[in-house]
Amino acid sequence: MIDKNNALEYNYKILAQERKKRKISQDQAAVKLTLSVGQIKSLENNLEYGFITPHFRNLALKRYAKFLEIPFYKIIPIPATQEKIVDYPSKEVASQIDKQNKNLLQLLILKIRYFIMGLVVLSLLVFFFFIPANKAKIPSSEIVIPEIAVIDYIDVIPVNKNFIQNKNLKAGPKESVQEAENKSDTISTEFLCSIESASMDKIWSRINPEKPPTYFHIVSLKKQSICTIDNRGVLRKYNLDDGEKLTHRGEAPFKVQLNPSISELYFQGWKVYLEKNDNFVQLNPVDMAIELN
Fold first, then answer.
1. Cα–Cα distance measured from residue 286 to residue 293, given in angstroms and rounded to the nearest whole number
2. What would you report as the CA-atom Rg of the chain, rounded to the nearest whole angstrom?
3. Residue 84 CB partners (closer than 8 Å, separation 6+)
4. By Cβ atoms counted within 10 A, which residue in 41, 172, 179, 265 is the most buried?
5. If you count DSSP H runs as helices and E runs as strands, how many of each does the chain have, helices first?
6. Distance (Å, rounded) from C-alpha 124 to C-alpha 127?
7. Nearest C-alpha neighbor of 6 from the set 71, 56, 70
8. In terms of Cα–Cα distance, which of 193, 190, 198, 199 is closest to 62?
9. Does residue 140 register a pLDDT over 70?
10. What pLDDT digit, counting tens, does each position of 35-81 carry?
């Protein structure tokens, strides 16, 4: 349940009005924003469920307003600022303050002059006494750059591991865990991962598995962002391009947040059939040893 003391106070009625005006259903809005229909209803009616913290609720509210092209000030009114009462000093007091400020300014200018003069003198001393001596100790004709210095320089050059591994990437179900982690470095700012707190739209398993439950495979038909969490609580986020394939490995059961209309999901050797509102899917494993017995 959301703590309303930390949640934004907003004009929630304008959300449903603008959505109906644009002829957009709650299902369509949920798919577009990768939220559940219950979360959309919670935002439109200012209900106390659907989000684990006020922070996630506020982020979802801002994304919903942007999706409906509603200026944010129409949803959250800005309170009128109170005028400050200024107590102006008298002329005598103001004159004394001006004199004090002038004296302080003159003192500051004098200190700056002394400081600059000191730097100039110190620089001249360093130039005349230290630099000639150093030049005499190391003649330019004897300066030799050893080969080992070049080797050390090469050793400390930072290597972009992502670039090396991406050159050998092969799209397909045998993609490694390291390749999958490389793809999870960045995620779209428009995508809000709420897999930890959302309720599941679909719970899926097969009684006759053909593959081990240590991974799932997804094919993205269009560009999208997804996130997943496994039984150990390891959360991963991915950005997928058009036609990109990804194999995520971990410990089942897996919870996946995705766009079902542009996704093909596979688990334990079977295709998971997704409906249009299945934004949150849980993949429950079945032990293959038990099935063989």
1. 13
2. 32
3. none
4. 265
5. 11, 9
6. 5
7. 56
8. 190
9. no
10. 999 999 999 998 888 888 988 888 999 999 999 999 878 887 655 43
Two tokens at 16? 């449903």
3-state helix, strand, coil in the chain (%, to 5): 40, 15, 45
Query: In what order do the strands lie in the sheet containing 270-272?
Result: 245-249, 215-220, 263-267, 270-272
Rounded to an integer, what distance in angstroms lies between the CA atom of residue 50 and that of residue 75? Answer: 20
Q: Long-range contact list for 119-123, CB < 8 A, 24+ apart? A: none
**Token digits of residue 123:** 């620089």
**pLDDT over 70 for what percent of the chain?**
69
Cα atoms in the Cβ-side hemisphere of radius 13 Å centred on 282: 12
Show the CA angle centred on residue 84, arms to residues 80 and 86, nearest 5°: 165
Q: Is 46 left (phi over 0), alpha (psi -120 to 50) or beta?
A: left
Tally of residues, the chain: 293
Cα 113 to its chain centre, rounded Å, is: 49
Q: For residue 209, give the nearest of 273, 281, 278, 266 by alpha carbon.
A: 266
CA angle (134 as vertex; 130, 137 as ends), nearest 5: 145
- Give domain limits for the chain: 13-75, 170-292
Residue 206 exposed, middle or buried by CB count within 10 Å (0-12, 13-18, 19+)? middle
How many beta carbons lie within 10 A of that of residue 53, not counting itself?
13
Task: Measure the CA–CA gap between 47 and 2, rounded to whole angstroms.
Answer: 9
The whole-angstrom distance between residue 217's C-alpha and the CA centroid of its chain comes to: 24
User: Amino acid identity of 50?
Assistant: G
- Pick left, alpha or beta for residue 70 (phi over 0 → left; psi -120 to 50 → alpha; otherwise beta): beta
Q: How far apart are CA 258 and CA 220, in angstroms?
A: 10
The residue written with tokens 């001596």 in the block is 133
